[in-house]
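ESCALATION

Customer reports they have been waiting on this structure for their group meeting. Please prioritize. Original submission:
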Amino acid sequence: MDAIFGVPLPALMGQLVVGLVNGCFYALLSLGLAVIFGLLNVVNFCHGALYMSGALLAWAGMAHLGMSYWLALLAAPLVVAAAAVAFERTLLARLYRFDHLYGLLLTFGLALLLEGAVTQAVGSSGLPYPAPELLQGGIDLGFMVLPAYRAWVVGAALLVCGATWALIERTRLGAMLRAGTENPRLLGAFGLNVPRLVTGTYAAGAALAALTGVLAAPLTQVSPHMGSNLLIVVFAVVVIGGMGSVLGAIVTGLGLGVVEGVSKVYYPPFANTVVFALMVLVLLTRPAGLFGRRA
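Update from on-call: job pushed to the front of the queue and completed.
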């Protein structure tokens, strides 16, 4: 079969791969948002800036310290997680007793500060970050050549998503996290340090965003606004999957990336709005999201 509904098979498969890669980024970013919202009930508007920070740290490490891509995959999330701990303990923790809007405004302000500082430091033009030599080139699949780095991104993202889901749904730590979302006071009565659990959760969500930024850096130029360009789509993914649902974030992110890729083949004008059209449809039929639970 050389064509499917009038579209050549190599072109269709190529867009499917691009859509799957984008879906992996959506899944990883929405996963971090879902984890933070699930325990803290905070809409983390600086998530895109944390994603950008991971990519920027990878670039800065390469440009100024000669840091390899593989070391950046470990170092950038750790640095961003440490900064997230300081932010959560000194500022965000003071707002938990107030309306959720205050946390949203605080994180939105932090995002603007980070983007402004990066623009002032390195400018607004994109900074190139090459893929590691090991992952350059492509894999001949017969009907198309799959770039090796894109294959790595898909594999790494699926591994991280699967490990995060297993940690939350199949371990004692995950059970404590889920209990903390339901009744943090009761959890504290059993002698568990709930503030430390909350801080660790926020740091883990920030680290996921930074890791996604490092993975994305070789595919898109590093720029101050690279996170804000994705954030609106990622919020739509979280709403469709269900606020706070880890499985919903993973499945919806991957699925919508593929749908977006196919839309670019058959009807390109619809590709930029298909996510939001689906969000409206889901909100009308299942306000809690596909995998969410009603309050």
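Sent to customer with the following note: The CA atoms of residues 31 and 249 lie 5 Å apart.
Escalation resolved.
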